[in-house]
Structure formats: C-alpha cells, structure tokens
Design a protein that fits this description.
The complex is a heterodimer of chains A (about 220) and B (about 230). With about 220 residues, chain A is an all-alpha fold. Chain A contains nine helices and no strands. With about 230 residues, chain B is of the alpha/beta class. Chain B contains eight helices and ten strands. In chain B, the strands form two sheets. A six-stranded mixed sheet of chain B has the order 6-7-8-3-9-10, sandwiched between helices. A four-stranded antiparallel sheet of chain B has the order 2-1-4-5, with helices on one face. In chain B, helix 5 crosses helix 6. Classes of the chains: A mainly alpha (about 220), B alpha/beta (about 230). The interface between A and B is medium-sized, with 25 and 29 residues.
C-alpha cells in the first residue's frame, strides 16, 4: 500500500504539472462534440437522441491522448525503469497510473457534459447517476488503456498503435456507457439501466484485475 | 566480518545479453569482493553499459548465472535491486518535476528518512536549485541529481556508467569524494569509464572488454593503454 500511495502521489503531481496538456485534450474533446453536431445538422431531435453516443465517442477519442501522455513522462528519461529498480512494485505502479488516468478521464468526461447539454439539448436532472456512469466508463477505458499505453510508449507509431489496440477491446465499455447514458437522459421505462451498469462493472472488475497482473510482463525487459 | 561480507559482492559466470542477433555481452565472468572498486573499460560498443545494466537487472540476462551479494539475478530480482544502485545514461528523472520532488518520489518508495533528501541535495550542490524543474537543468546538473538518487538507495553495490561525463571539475571532485566515502562504507563500486588514468588511480581492479568479452583483467594500476594489451 505504501508503494501505491507513493506512486499515486507521483502520478497526480505529474498530471497537475502537465495540466496545460489536459486543457488541450479537453479542447480536442469539445471540438469533436462540436463537429458531430455540424455533421448531423440542425435537427434538434436527432442530436438529442444521439447525444450519449457523441459524448462517449468524444471521450473515447480524447482518452487515447490522455493515456498516451501519461506514459510519455515515464519514457522520456526512463523514469519508470528507475522506479522498478528501486525496487517499486509493478502492480502498485500500474494501479496508481490507472487510478490517475481514471481521475483525468472522469474530469474530462464531466467537463464534456455541459458541452453535450448545450450542443445537443440533452439536459437531465439525474446528475448523480450520470456522473456514476461517467466514472465507470472512465475506469473501463483506463484499465486496459493504461496497460496498452505502457506497451506502446516506446514504439515509434505509438499514436496509431494505442487506439488500434484499445478501441476493439473497449467496445463493451462504449456500448454499455452509451446505453446507460442514453437511458439516464431519455428515461428508463423498461428498467434497463441496471443491466448496462452491471456490464460496465463486470468489465471493470475483469480488466482491473487482469491488467494489474499483466503489467509486470509489459514493463520488465 | 559478517556472514554477508564473506559472499562475493558480484559473482557472475558466463553472463551474456544479446540484442537481435548480436551479442552485446558474450560470456563475462566476474568475481568481485565486497568493498572493491572495479574499473570496467573498453571501446564504445564493447558491452560496458550492457554489462552494468544486466547486473542492475535493468536488462535481461540471456545466458549465464550471476549473483549480487548472494542473491540470484534471475530468481531474486527484487532482492538484487535492494542491493544495487545504477547511475547510467538515463537520469531516471521526471522533467516536469523539481529536483526535490524527484528525490522525494524515490525516498517514499525506499522508505528513507525525510532529511536524506535535503542532505543529498546539499551534498551534490543542488540545494539552491532544488525547487526548479529538471527540464531547465544542464546535463551536468542532471548527472548530479542522478548521483543523489543513486546514493539515496544506500546500496551495497554501486554501478556507475560513465559517471564523469558532463561533469565540471567541481563535479569530478564531488564524485571522487563520494567514491571515497562509499569505499569507507564498504560499498562495492563498478566504474565504467574511458578515463583510464583516473580509473587507475581510483580503482583496485580493472577489466577491459571488447565485443562483449573480457580481454584483460588485473590490478587497475597495471591496466595497459588501449592497443598495448
């Protein structure tokens, strides 16, 4: 636990120091939402109907930038290798990084919600469950995303490789998050929200467990 | 003499590491007593850095056996890492963080006393610049910070890969002083360097590498100049 706290403090401090990058990622996500609205046109009902899908596509596209950036600092001066040689537990390093990435993605997703409301007229009074889904979806993107970001950090084509590896794997997260968000915005007469939330939770349990175990194999020479 | 002093600080046999089809280290055997200062020399690409990285467990051991202070490099990696500190070509620092923050991160992982950071920053001459991000540091300052990080580990074996590179004369003197202190503490030092005269004066033993193999070994003062061996 001591290693986890030390690593988490380090990751949060790094994110704070590179917050200009986070602002740029937010601008990217907001631009994506704006472009989706232009692509659909001025049909208010269609925009409102697809709002959840656009929100999660925007968040997913932005997440690759956040995830890749989170390992950039580790790769620059081989800082991650330095921590492993101390020796720091690879598992602690993984969970700290994944938690920090979840925090960053949650804040990004939360920041994109007002954009969704303004651009797509998709307001909802059910804010706490919506934030809960954003949190679960962010965690679902972060768990495998952190692992793949570590794998591709030293690769030449990392900007391309990360989404190529990540996107097929997180299709269940996208599907469940879009459905759950849509049900929160438009109402849930059939009581389906629980099932989609359960799917997100199961995805998280599996990937947070599995990726923590695999991380050592990825980062050790 | 404690039981730990009786086991060699480094006991390596046929250590080999390859990258693709090329053997960077091709069967190096070493037996280094605790407290020894061993110079490792050889031309660029002769395998010095790779050997040190393998012994530090930063790079995988492809063939051979090696023990650091009695701990097996393959099966007791974390125990080996607690015995070894590597000052290599990478500074292992976060450029966006300050010198103090970088050392604090390592200190928390190591569980070292809080006052060690201040003491080490002072020792390497960085106390006045401790709250500046590493990004603005010169190469020599980064080397000093990397040295402070290595010393923070309180390792029994110190692996120094070209530690004098980028250092100014004051840095040279600092490093010599640090090496003297480490010897008094009984720390084993492997010093990879091209500065033969300096190495001969500082070290007890020496080995010369070529194409990943040991081509000369003996007392450091007897190390011949390149081309005369």
């Amino acid at each position: 636990m001591k290693g986890l706290w030390a690593a988490l403090r380090k990751d949060l401090l790094l994110q704070w120091r590179t917050r200009a990058q986070a602002a740029a990622v937010y601008a990217f996500g907001a631009s994506a939402l704006l472009l989706f609205s232009f692509a659909v046109g001025p049909q208010a009902s269609l925009l409102r109907e697809q709002a959840a899908g656009f929100l999660w596509l925007g968040l997913m596209l932005s997440s690759t930038l956040t995830l890749a950036e989170s390992f950039q600092a580790e790769a620059e001066q081989h800082a991650l290798e330095g921590l492993l040689l101390l020796p720091a537990s690879p598992r602690a390093l993984y969970y700290a990084k994944a938690l920090a990435n979840t925090t960053a993605l949650f804040l990004l997703g939360t920041g994109l919600l007002p954009m969704m409301v303004i651009l797509y007229d998709a307001a909802t009074p059910r804010v706490p469950p919506l934030l809960g889904i954003v949190l679960l979806g962010s965690a679902g993107l972060s768990a495998p995303g952190t692992l793949y970001a570590a794998m591709t950090a030293q690769a030449r084509a990392r900007q391309t490789l990360l989404p190529l590896l990540l996107f097929p794997l997180v299709v269940p997260v996208l599907l469940a998050s879009v459905k759950a968000t849509s049900l929160i915005i438009h109402g849930d007469p059939m009581g389906q929200l629980g099932s989609w939330t359960l799917l997100l939770t199961c995805f998280n349990v599996i990937h947070w467990s599995l990726c923590g175990l695999l991380f050592e194999r990825v980062v050790e020479d | 003499m404690s039981p730990q002093d009786e086991v060699p600080a480094i006991d390596a046999s046929g250590v080999a590491r390859r990258f693709g089809r090329r053997w960077a280290v091709a069967g190096v055997s070493l037996r280094v007593r605790p407290g020894t200062r061993l110079m490792v020399t050889g031309r660029n690409g002769s395998g010095k850095s790779t050997l040190l990285r393998v012994l530090a467990t930063a790079s995988r051991l492809d063939q051979g056996e090696a023990r650091i202070a009695g701990f097996d490099l393959r099966t007791e990696r974390n125990a080996v890492r607690r015995q070894v500190a590597l000052l290599g070509h990478h500074s292992y620092q976060y450029e966006a963080l300050t010198a103090r923050e970088n050392l604090e991160i390592s200190r928390r992982f190591l569980g070292a006393p809080a006052d060690r950071v201040e003491a080490l920053l002072s020792e390497v001459g960085l106390l006045a610049r401790a709250d500046e991000p590493v990004l603005v540091f010169s190469a020599g300052m980064r080397k000093r910070l990397a040295l402070a990080r290595a010393l923070l580990q309180d390792a029994r074996v110190l692996l120094l890969d070209e530690p004098y590179g980028e250092l100014d004369p004051a840095g040279f003197a600092l490093l010599d002083r640090v090496l003297g202190e480490q010897q008094r503490r009984g720390v084993t030092v492997l010093l990879a360097t091209h500065l033969l005269d300096h190495g001969r004066a500082l070290c007890d033993e020496a080995i010369a590498l070529e194409e990943g193999r040991v081509i000369w070994s003996g007392p450091a003062r007897d190390l011949p100049d390149p081309g005369t061996a």
